């Protein structure tokens, strides 16, 4: 039924007033809703999801003898600090060391500190694991103690431990100490330090390498994930995790755009000292401490499945490998997949996985070939053919996803799935809620692998904040995205997965806004879009129930799904417009409909955001609502609503 529009003049202002829309809901499922529909897309975890607290912990990918190589490290009491190319490095992968010299005539504690990732959270209920390697470059008769600890930036010691060292230690030796703070810090303005008694150690030089400081981690995994961030991800109810990019899979424009700087799975597994790290696409060093195995372990712990990408011969700087040079990269992609799912008896990468403690294969059903290859669509034609024919032959059970968006007739074999990306305005999102309705139903499925309303200015969606670029998701952007997501549900016979992007930002070092989740060294901020995603993911249902269609291009959208096991029926209503809208739902085909339901509602003013200063401005509220076979619901302006009723 078309909404009836009445124009009411009131105090000289023209107000458009819509009478209640009537939505008739079918009791028969028109298609099933894939369990993978709502998930997350991710690029790199250093200083965020990966729980390591020290920044520049192993001097990876820095230029020795420069001030920049000392990023995040600071001398204490006139210590001399230099990052050197060590003639006898801790490992081939980590060629640089921190050379620390105590000036002659020194007194008091002399040493160095690490500022963390814009601070370090110190919690007295936690035990921190601190570790490092050291050696004396020249043997000496020195014997004394190193003090390792946590302190506030004004020098109040919160935790410390001492360890005896001897100048005869000229081979790399690892020290691991637990740190138990005697008090929590009131803020994150704290640092990690190592000192030595200056008078006793005057004139000594010691090399250090591969520092680490871990708080307790998600599910207590060694080398694991930051608890509050991991729990926030899990709270959203994601079904999948797209990794390791995104652009971060490709190589970096910051390092000469060579194939050599791409993400390589084998550089991210095994002992941390064997991981060289790389400058990721977003301009900072990835330690690769969050490597392929840590990712996979996290997905198991979090109940998600991977959508894994393989590098496919194209680098973001614009270089595509010629076809006759692809073979080793296709082999590396096979090895990467075998590391995840191969049989240890048949494949060396799988045997490596088994040796690292996970003999069972991980779950892997989807592999994405490249990222945003519409930037190199001409070469993707042969790259896709060569990669996919080889990979499909070895892994027929896997669905390979093309990344040229949904319109590339030149690809052979015909892609089973496409990854579609869109960054747009809130208006674009509600206007395009029918984006997939006209797609052919011919077996091709779609992954909305990156999407977000990022600017209110249609002419410059990639502009600066002055051009309407959002710094944090707003209620306007979240309700626009939610309108689009009702279309994803309606089209979930062909759309099998969707993920907002980007997922995470550290508020003190951000390359891109807005992000789904913001955090600093101590806290996590869940955005309006986060709550919209959560409302959809946790109320997914497994059956899509057809209903009267919303108006194409309008601001008011809905979709209805149902859990076949519980009979719970989820009516999602997104109002991306600036006035409240009434909808009468008719569930008359069902023999019974509960007389009360639950309403989960996210709403607020157009520009309202959750920010570091006001992280809980917009929270979903749950209330009870009168339902029945026919009921009317008023959706507030800029709102995302889920009404749950039981139907049989
Ligand atoms: C990090 O950002 C917060 C919020 O903007 C700010 O208050 C804080 O001073 C920043 N910290 C550092 C170390 O720059
Ligand atoms: C910290 O060290 C303890 C003792 O060695 C270990 O059991 C625990 O797994 C470690 N935690 C992390 C996060 O590495
Ligand atoms: C990873 O494997 C490739 C070959 O596929 C090799 O060229 C590269 O050196 C390896 N990297 C590491 C760090 O082992
Ligand atoms: C299905 O149709 C789309 C166009 O809507 C086309 O791009 C795709 O290749 C087709 N898939 C198959 C399997 O023919």
Automatic annotation (TrEMBL):
<dbReference type="InterPro" id="IPR013780">
    <property type="entry name" value="Glyco_hydro_b"/>
</dbReference>
<keyword id="KW-0732">Signal</keyword>
<keyword id="KW-0325">Glycoprotein</keyword>
<feature type="signal peptide">
    <location>
        <begin position="1"/>
        <end position="20"/>
    </location>
</feature>
<dbReference type="InterPro" id="IPR051563">
    <property type="entry name" value="Glycosyl_Hydrolase_51"/>
</dbReference>
<dbReference type="Pfam" id="PF06964">
    <property type="entry name" value="Alpha-L-AF_C"/>
</dbReference>
<protein>
    <recommendedName>
        <fullName>non-reducing end alpha-L-arabinofuranosidase</fullName>
        <ecNumber>3.2.1.55</ecNumber>
    </recommendedName>
</protein>
<comment type="similarity">
    <text>Belongs to the glycosyl hydrolase 51 family.</text>
</comment>
<dbReference type="GO" id="GO:0046373">
    <property type="term" value="P:L-arabinose metabolic process"/>
</dbReference>
<comment type="pathway">
    <text>Glycan metabolism; L-arabinan degradation.</text>
</comment>
<dbReference type="InterPro" id="IPR055235">
    <property type="entry name" value="ASD1_cat"/>
</dbReference>
<dbReference type="InterPro" id="IPR010720">
    <property type="entry name" value="Alpha-L-AF_C"/>
</dbReference>
<dbReference type="Pfam" id="PF22848">
    <property type="entry name" value="ASD1_dom"/>
</dbReference>
<dbReference type="GO" id="GO:0046556">
    <property type="term" value="F:alpha-L-arabinofuranosidase activity"/>
</dbReference>
<keyword id="KW-0378">Hydrolase</keyword>
<dbReference type="GO" id="GO:0031222">
    <property type="term" value="P:arabinan catabolic process"/>
</dbReference>
<feature type="domain" description="Alpha-L-arabinofuranosidase C-terminal">
    <location>
        <begin position="471"/>
        <end position="639"/>
    </location>
</feature>
<dbReference type="InterPro" id="IPR017853">
    <property type="entry name" value="GH"/>
</dbReference>
């Amino acid at each position: 039924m078309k909404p009836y529009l009445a124009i009411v003049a009131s105090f000289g202002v023209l107000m458009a007033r819509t009478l209640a829309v009537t939505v008739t809901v079918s009791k028969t499922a028109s298609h099933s809703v894939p369990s993978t529909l709502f998930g997350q897309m991710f690029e790199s975890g250093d200083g965020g999801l990966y729980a390591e607290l020290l920044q520049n912990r192993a001097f990876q990918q820095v230029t020795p003898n420069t001030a920049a190589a000392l990023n995040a490290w600071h001398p204490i009491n006139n210590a001399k600090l230099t990052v050197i190319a060590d003639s006898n490095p801790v490992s081939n992968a980590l060629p640089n060391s921190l050379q620390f010299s105590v000036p002659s005539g020194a007194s008091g504690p002399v040493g160095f500190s690490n500022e963390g990732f814009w601070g370090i959270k110190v919690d007295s209920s936690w035990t921190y694991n601190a570790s490092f390697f050291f050696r004396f470059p020249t043997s000496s008769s020195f014997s004394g103690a190193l003090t390792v600890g946590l302190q506030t930036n004004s020098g109040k010691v919160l935790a410390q431990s001492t360890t005896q060292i001897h100048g005869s230690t000229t081979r790399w030796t690892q020290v691991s100490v637990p740190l138990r703070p005697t008090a929590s810090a009131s803020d994150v303005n704290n640092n990690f330090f190592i000192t030595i008694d200056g008078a006793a150690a005057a004139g000594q030089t010691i090399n250090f390498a591969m520092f680490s400081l871990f708080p307790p981690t998600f599910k207590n995994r060694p080398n694991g994930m930051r608890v509050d961030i991991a729990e926030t991800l899990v709270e959203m109810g994601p079904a999948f995790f797209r990794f390791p990019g995104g652009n971060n899979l490709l190589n970096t424009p910051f390092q000469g755009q060579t194939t050599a700087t791409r993400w390589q799975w084998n550089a991210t597994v095994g002992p941390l000292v064997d991981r060289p790290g790389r400058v990721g696409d977003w301009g900072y060093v990835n330690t690769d401490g969050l490597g392929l195995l840590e990712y996979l372990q996290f997905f198991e712990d979090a109940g998600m499945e991977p959508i894994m990408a393989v590098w496919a011969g194209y680098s973001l700087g614009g270089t595509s490998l010629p076809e006759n040079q692809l073979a080793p990269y296709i082999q590396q992609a096979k090895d990467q997949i075998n590391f995840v799912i191969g049989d240890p008896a048949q494949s060396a990468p799988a045997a490596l996985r088994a040796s690292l403690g996970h003999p069972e294969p991980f779950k892997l059903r989807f592999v994405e070939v490249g990222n945003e290859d519409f930037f190199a669509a001409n070469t993707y034609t042969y790259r896709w053919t060569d990669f996919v024919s080889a990979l499909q032959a070895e892994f027929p059970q896997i669905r390979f996803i093309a990344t040229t968006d949904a319109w590339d007739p030149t690809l052979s074999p015909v892609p089973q799935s496409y990854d579609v990306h869109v960054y747009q305005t809130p208006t674009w999102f509600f206007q395009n809620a029918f984006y997939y309705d006209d797609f052919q139903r011919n077996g091709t499925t779609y992954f909305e692998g990156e999407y977000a309303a990022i600017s209110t200015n249609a002419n410059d969606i990639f502009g600066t904040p002055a051009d309407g670029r959002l710094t944090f998701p707003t209620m306007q952007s979240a309700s626009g995205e939610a309108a689009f997501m009702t279309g994803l549900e309606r089209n979930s016979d062909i759309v099998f997965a969707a993920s907002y992007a980007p997922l995470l930002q550290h508020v003190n070092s951000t390359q891109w806004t807005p992000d789904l989740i913001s955090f600093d060294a101590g806290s996590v901020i869940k955005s309006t879009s986060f709550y919209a995603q959560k409302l959809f993911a946790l109320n997914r249902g497994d059956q899509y129930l057809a209903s009267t269609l919303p108006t194409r291009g309008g601001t008011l959208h809905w979709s209805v799904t149902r859990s076949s096991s519980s009979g719970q029926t989820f009516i999602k209503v997104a109002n991306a417009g600036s006035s409240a809208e009434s909808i009468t739902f008719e569930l008359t085909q069902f023999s019974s409909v509960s007389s009360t339901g639950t309403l989960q509602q996210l709403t607020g003013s157009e520009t309202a955001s959750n920010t570091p200063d006001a992280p809980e401005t917009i929270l979903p509220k749950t209330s009870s609502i009168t339902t029945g076979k026919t009921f009317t619901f008023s959706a507030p302006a800029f709102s995302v609503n889920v009404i749950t009723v039981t139907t049989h």
